[in-house]
Amino acid sequence: MRPGTLAVQLYSVIDALEADRPGTLARLAALGFRHVEPFALGLWNTPPDELAASARALRADLDEAGLGVSSVHIAVSGDSQAAAVEICRILGTDTAFVPIPWLVDGFDERSLESHDGVRAFAGRLNEAGLELAGAGIRLGYHNHHFEWARLPGGAHAFDVLWDLLDPEVLAEVDVYWAAVAGQDPAEVLKRLGERAVAAHVKDGPATLDTAQTPIGTGDIDIPAALRAGTHLRWHITEIDRTEADRFELLAANRQALLAGGLTVL
Q1: Rounded distance between C-alpha atoms, residue 237 and residue 174, angstroms
Q2: Assign residue 253 a region: left if phi > 0, alpha if psi is -120 to 50, beta otherwise?
Q3: How many CB atoms lie within 10 A of CB 134?
Q4: In sequence order, what E strands does 64-148 have?
């Protein structure tokens, strides 16, 4: 089976983007990246016309750099998802992920601390996913570590959430944060099966509040995870925290994934 295609999550270079977005995108392209995953688009408290204008400006900068979009991180509003649909159409992607609970109107991280909270959260994602599907957009959810907290009764919130989500809701598995939560990323990807269409790939000591390091130098068995994710369309390298130069680390991660035959451009 063909490996997933490589992309880079733009959060990795957030400070550089804020200082000089066109130059930063051009630098990523010069490193050999062909696709990016934008973040923080579709915030439900931002007027739709502002969101569309922001997406068009980003698309213009991406075109200048010759970069495509793998998927996008968005928020889910309390009513219509029309703004999210417009953002995806402007950026040229059919896949959008909710990256954290508080980007869903009316929810926050504590929403996954009870069965009722998980049930309500899953219901809201299912509703939004159905609306987006009607416009040809696939909605998914991206994990961190806290989804594996134990609910009353002992079940992991992560497992309960995915039992409640419609089969059409996709998964973007952050292999690093799964490992921080004490999980085997390969097993997480196997359990999710064809729902797992994207993975965030990074390495390091797999503990909270520690710096990430080049792929192959930490505690994450990335080859095993990517081999287990047989339905992954996208392998997205990302940096949350590091002591290294971010562009150098992204370049090293790109090279490690390509040299190992784990991804394609």
Answers
A1: 10
A2: alpha
A3: 10
A4: 68-69, 72-73, 95-98, 138-142
